[in-house]
Amino acid sequence: MMNLSRAVVRSFATTATRRSTAVGKEQIEKGYFEIRKVQEHFQKKDGKPVFLKGSAFDNVLYRITMALALVGIGGMTKLFYELSVPQKQE
């Protein structure tokens, strides 16, 4: 009984790197290397935020989002001004 509990604890305590080196490169899926290439692309140190590193389409979406946010802020500012300043009675 004691050996079984030790084996269970040891299986959870074994590090992932030790297990992966035992598997060997021939059993690693092809998709893993494609994912690694994508990760390397997004982790490059080029000064861009990660949400702009995808493509030019990301840049367009970002600019549209910022423009709509500014329009919304302007509309809210106008609304607050109209509600806080009394209108002149004619």
From TrEMBL:
The chain crosses the membrane at residues 60-81. It is an enzyme of class 1 (oxidoreductase). GO terms for cellular component: mitochondrial inner membrane; respiratory chain complex IV. Its EC number is 1.9.3.1. GO terms for biological process: mitochondrial electron transport, cytochrome c to oxygen; mitochondrial respirasome assembly; regulation of oxidative phosphorylation. Keywords: Membrane, Mitochondrion, Mitochondrion inner membrane, Oxidoreductase, Transit peptide, Transmembrane, Transmembrane helix. Its main location: mitochondrion. It comes from the Eukaryota. The keyword Oxidoreductase applies. GO terms for molecular function: oxidoreductase activity. Gene3D superfamilies: Cytochrome c oxidase, subunit VIIa. It is found in: Mitochondrion inner membrane. InterPro entries: Cyt_c_oxidase_su7a_sf, Cytc_oxidase_su7a_met. SUPFAM superfamilies: Mitochondrial cytochrome c oxidase subunit VIIa. Belongs to the cytochrome c oxidase VIIa family. This is Uncharacterized protein. It comes from Drosophila willistoni (Fruit fly).
